[in-house]
């Protein structure tokens, strides 16, 4: 008796939906083992990670706040990945967007600039993110450079650029030498949805992005183009679609969304520009995109789930002294299982009983 | 030994190879269902069947590439379990595949050396290679690199490589599919010689005339089961076809009063450098195709058919707009979408991955080529109902069989998917249809439907260009036949004058004019 992977005639719709859940289950099982090895009570740890954050209003708002950049970035990444363009540098596009938007905020600081400031910041951040993402896209199309490497390397360029700005020209003169800009003026700040709460206008924007992506992919010819270029490049060319143009387009859109998420984070929950504005949103969004099956609605759910792990991770650190890095381990293991479980969409396990052969008598 | 009914009276002797109840199961699918076959020394045994009948599965099991799910294989009377092809070769079983496994950038001798299991020196091997190729009349230059060779020469490498292991039993998978008629004749001489030496040959084919001419025995498979073992020389091509198909095949009929109209596709002195390494350069291709006419392009695979299709479809553009003229409009520089808008339609050779996106639904695959011109898209939004309607119409008109209304393309059988693809294009009422290998790997029933559809389309006034390696197919539907060789296209011959001999000469690169023919052969 042996276990074999057998190709399915058609991709299984049920498994496509269930596979992320299987992956989450396997991840939690692995985490239980990990917690046990760390000498922590696995049940208490799981409670701290997944249950406790859901039980109070503050944490719930915080989950939505954390999910906002994750979902926005992941929607953009999903368009790239569907089109077979591998943008790994959303983190850098996020930072560059934050920097570009902050430029207006810093320049208008203390002036009587009006309500135009925030909209201009958002537009500029999106444009900067898009332009930054176009660098690897154009290198890919023109010179055949691997977009995976170039987009990833540009993350570190953006990171150091931001670092330079807040330690140099943009440093708050009254900030006791901390590497940070001054707090943004109210006109340069994303408005809150609930007075005194944490939930801000950016979350509404993220929901609009999800809806727009759902319509784009499900209903429009452009969305079809994205899917067919990724799924069957030669057939796409036969259909009259140009893969190169699409790489440029999807990179630009995903860069714009990452840049937008960047400025919303800075002008929203953070309130000023400083290093470490992102706990790796651009990378975690890759997991969100795949966990959400590159589907807009799935990404919304996956974004909330991974935001939960961020909040839960903090909670576990506070209450149980579990290192925050365990959250990253969790996210990594999750991506691993998600990709592994995806093979079940096209394949299924089958038990095989070999025929009664007398192999010893052979020959 | 030369008993014409080898199943019979061979007391005391056992067949060289025998399968008993050989079964191969893939999931729920029975690729081979309890097949018994006997192969005797000194016979050429044909294995006949349609695409998907189980021929490849059976020979893969015999050659050790796959393990049968049940049943057994006996070699010289003893039961064997083959661990892999190298064990099969050691026992004396050789195989020549339809798709060659050769390294383009290595020489003939290097390729042969790589394929042999032995430990002799390269020089000894080269000497043996020269000797075998001389003995059997299979000329090869051991120092040439493979990419420079014709398909026929590449096949010779594979055959010589197999013969150098001195096999008692040789399996050939559709060896003539890639050969000109003359090359096929030469191959038959080699095979007859091998038979005279007492070797056994299993000859996979679906060309019935060939089998009748060459083979002593024929085993016919259908749907994974053995239908019959017979003497093909005592059967007619029609009776063999009936056994293969399991019923009568619909005759394809051309309408009587087909008239040609204005030129709808004109190609003027089209030259195009190859897009990839070892590709074929198209050189000075010119032809004119009128409405109501079917032009066939014959030729051995790899002589520029793919490049010509790409140049006509617009997947590759030409700098000079005038090289391709569709419906009177210079289109050489236009994209495939713009050419479709001019009324052109295209059916490529590869069904999965080129003609369709395999893992997308049929409705989405209807959209793939219909998005520009068929009202399936309004202001950027997809009209799913219109795409589904195309699927339904293609299903109805061309008898596409599928499990549900809108399945993924990859879940259809080859024949049904091809009917869908051809149907999808014909339903757009094209002025010009360019089709590559319309019935390649398609069952006989579907092939008849597709050929009839092409004839009907021409009757309705469209210009149809058919590229095919199947000369019988071209003879059946084409009005004129041209031959492509090394990227050059011959002048078209009227179908009535295009004999196999003439086409064969052109396919081999000879000229038809007697004086020049002498030169060409010498060169």
UniProtKB/TrEMBL annotation, chain A:
InterPro entries: ABC_transp_permease. Keywords: Cell membrane, Membrane, Transmembrane, Transmembrane helix. GO terms for cellular component: plasma membrane. It is found in: Cell membrane. GO terms for molecular function: transmembrane transporter activity. It holds the Pfam family BPD_transp_2. The chain crosses the membrane at residues 12-38, 63-82, 94-110, 116-135, 147-166, 199-217, 246-268, 280-308, 329-349. It is a multi-pass membrane protein. PANTHER family: ABC TRANSPORTER, PERMEASE PROTEIN, GUANOSINE ABC TRANSPORTER PERMEASE PROTEIN NUPP. This is Sugar ABC transporter permease.
Automatic annotation (TrEMBL), chain B:
SMART domains: AAA. Residues 17-248, 265-511 form the ABC transporter domain. One of its GO terms (molecular function) is ATP binding. Pfam families: ABC_tran. CDD domains: ABC_Carb_Monos_I, ABC_Carb_Monos_II. It comes from the Bacteria. The keyword Protein biosynthesis does not apply. Involved in beta-(1-->2)glucan export. Transmembrane domains (TMD) form a pore in the inner membrane and the ATP-binding domain (NBD) is responsible for energy generation. Belongs to the ABC transporter superfamily. This is ABC transporter. It comes from Bradyrhizobium nanningense.
């Amino acid at each position: 008796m042996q276990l074999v992977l057998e190709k399915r005639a058609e991709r299984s719709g049920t498994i496509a939906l269930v596979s992320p859940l299987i992956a989450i289950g396997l991840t939690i099982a692995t985490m239980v083992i990990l917690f046990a090895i760390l000498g922590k009570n696995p049940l208490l740890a799981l409670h701290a990670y997944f249950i406790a954050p859901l039980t109070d209003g503050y944490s719930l708002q915080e989950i939505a706040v954390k999910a906002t950049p994750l979902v926005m970035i992941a929607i953009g990444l999903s368009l790239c990945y569907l089109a077979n363009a591998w943008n790994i540098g959303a983190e850098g596009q996020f930072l560059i967007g934050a920097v570009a938007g902050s430029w207006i905020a810093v320049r208008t600081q203390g002036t009587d600039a009006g309500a135009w400031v925030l909209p201009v910041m958002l537009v500029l951040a999106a444009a900067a993110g898009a332009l930054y993402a176009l660098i690897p896209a154009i290198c890919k199309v023109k010179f055949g450079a691997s977009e995976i490497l170039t987009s990833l390397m540009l993350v570190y360029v953006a990171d150091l650029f931001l670092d330079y700005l807040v330690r140099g020209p943009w440093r708050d003169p009254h900030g006791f030498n901390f590497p940070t800009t001054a707090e943004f003026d109210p006109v340069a700040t994303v408005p809150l949805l609930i007075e005194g709460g944490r939930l801000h206008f950016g979350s509404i924007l993220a929901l609009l992005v999800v809806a727009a992506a759902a319509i784009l992919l499900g209903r429009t010819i452009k969305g079809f183009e994205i899917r067919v270029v990724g799924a069957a490049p030669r057939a796409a060319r036969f259909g009259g679609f140009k893969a190169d143009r699409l790489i440029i387009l999807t990179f630009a859109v995903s860069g714009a969304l990452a840049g937008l998420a960047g400025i919303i984070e800075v002008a929203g929950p953070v309130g000023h520009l400083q290093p470490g504005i992102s706990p790796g949103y651009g990378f975690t969004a890759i997991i969100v995109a795949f966990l959400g099956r590159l589907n807009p609605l799935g990404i919304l759910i996956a974004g909330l789930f991974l935001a939960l792990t961020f909040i839960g991770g903090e909670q576990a650190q506070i209450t149980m002294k579990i290192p925050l890095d365990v959250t990253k381990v969790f996210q990594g293991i999750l991506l691993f299982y998600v990709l592994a479980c995806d093979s079940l969409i096209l394949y299924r396990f089958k038990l095989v009983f070999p025929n009664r052969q007398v192999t010893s008598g052979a020959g | 030994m030369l008993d014409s009914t080898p199943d019979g009276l061979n007391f005391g002797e056992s067949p060289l190879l025998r399968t008993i109840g050989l079964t191969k199961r893939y999931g729920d699918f029975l690729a081979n269902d309890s097949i018994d076959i006997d192969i005797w020394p000194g016979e050429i045994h044909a294995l006949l069947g349609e695409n998907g009948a189980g021929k490849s599965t059976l020979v893969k099991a015999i050659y050790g590439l796959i393990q049968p799910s049940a049943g057994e294989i006996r070699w010289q009377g003893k039961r064997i379990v083959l661990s892999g092809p190298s064990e099969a070769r050691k026992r004396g079983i050789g195989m020549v595949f339809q798709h060659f496994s050769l390294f383009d950038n290595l020489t003939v001798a290097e390729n042969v050396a790589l394929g042999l299991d032995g430990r002799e020196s390269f020089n000894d091997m080269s000497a043996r290679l020269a000797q075998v190729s001389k003995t059997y009349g299979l000329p090869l230059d051991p120092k040439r690199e493979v990419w420079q060779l014709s398909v026929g020469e590449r096949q010779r490498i594979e055959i010589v490589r197999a013969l150098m292991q001195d096999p008692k039993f040789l399996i050939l998978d559709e060896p003539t599919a890639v050969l000109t008629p003359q090359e096929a004749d030469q191959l038959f001489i080699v095979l007859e010689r091998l038979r005279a030496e007492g070797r056994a040959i299993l000859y996979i084919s679906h060309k019935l005339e060939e089998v009748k001419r060459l083979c002593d025995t024929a085993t016919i498979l259908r749907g994974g089961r053995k239908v019959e073992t017979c003497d093909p020389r005592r059967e007619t091509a029609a009776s063999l076809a009936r056994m293969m198909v399991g019923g009568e095949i619909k005759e394809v009929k051309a309408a009587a009063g087909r008239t040609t109209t204005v030129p709808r596709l004109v190609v003027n002195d089209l030259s195009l450098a190859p897009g990839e390494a070892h590709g074929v350069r198209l050189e000075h291709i010119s032809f004119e195709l009128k409405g109501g006419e079917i032009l066939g392009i014959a030729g051995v695979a790899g002589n520029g058919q793919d490049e010509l299709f790409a140049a006509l479809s617009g997947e590759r553009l030409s700098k000079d707009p005038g090289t391709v003229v569709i419906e009177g409009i210079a289109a050489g520089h236009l994209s495939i979408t713009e050419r479709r808008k001019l009324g052109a339609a295209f059916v490529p050779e590869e069904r999965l991955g080129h003609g369709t996106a395999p893992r997308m639904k049929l409705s989405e695959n209807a959209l793939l080529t219909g998005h520009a011109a068929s009202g399936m898209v309004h202001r950027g939004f997809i009209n799913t109902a219109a795409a589904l309607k195309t699927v339904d119409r293609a299903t109805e008109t061309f008898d596409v069989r599928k499990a549900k209304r809108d399945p993924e393309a990859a879940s259809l059988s080859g024949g049904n998917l091809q009917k869908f693809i051809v149907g999808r294009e014909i339903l757009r009422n094209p002025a010009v249809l360019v089709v590559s290998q319309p019935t390649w790997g398609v069952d006989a029933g579907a092939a008849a439907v597709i050929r009839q559809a092409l004839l009907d389309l021409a009757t309705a006034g469209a210009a149809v260009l058919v590229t095919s390696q199947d000369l019988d197919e071209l003879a059946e539907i084409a009005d004129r036949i041209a031959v492509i060789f090394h990227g050059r296209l011959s002048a078209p011959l009227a179908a009535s004058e295009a004999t196999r001999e003439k086409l064969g000469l052109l396919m081999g690169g000879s000229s038809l004019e007697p004086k020049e023919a002498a030169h060409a052969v010498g060169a």
